[in-house]
Design goal:
The protein is mainly alpha-helical. It is built from six helices and two strands; from the N terminus they run H-E-E-H-H-H-H-H.
Length: 122
């Protein structure tokens, strides 16, 4: 029996995710106005199970917050919960903790993140 062919190509899951992450990007890194100190409580639409409260002053919980928001947050969540200076400071490590698609979308949109990573590795 011959395999059926479709006139409507099925999109690649990676392409769908890449488009989703791209829509969530801020226009500029300067738009990231999240807190630099204190505790952040994420809404249920970002994290629906597990830890929802993160101490931004502690490195490990902050990294968990950023990983979660980058992967699950909508554009306004990214703007509200991520802080530009903290994102830049922790990007060389954070980029190794997020998916390749998230990393590629952010570094393509903001070449300074990729440049920072290359400078840190040198």
């Amino acid at each position: 029996m011959a395999a059926a062919t479709s006139r409507f190509p099925v999109p690649n899951a990676g392409e769908i995710l890449r488009a989703r992450y791209t829509r969530r990007l801020p226009a500029r890194l300067e738009d990231l106005q999240g807190p630099a100190h204190g505790t952040v409580d994420l809404p249920l639409h970002v994290v629906w199970s597990g830890r929802r409260s993160f101490d931004v002053d502690a490195a490990r919980p902050r990294m968990g917050l950023y990983r979660t928001v980058l992967a699950e947050g909508q554009q306004q969540d990214v703007i509200d919960f991520l802080n530009r200076d903290l994102l830049i400071a922790q990007w060389p490590v954070l980029r190794t903790l997020v998916s390749r698609l998230v990393r590629d979308v952010w570094e393509n949109a903001f070449p300074e993140l990729a440049t920072l990573t290359a400078a840190t590795a040198a």
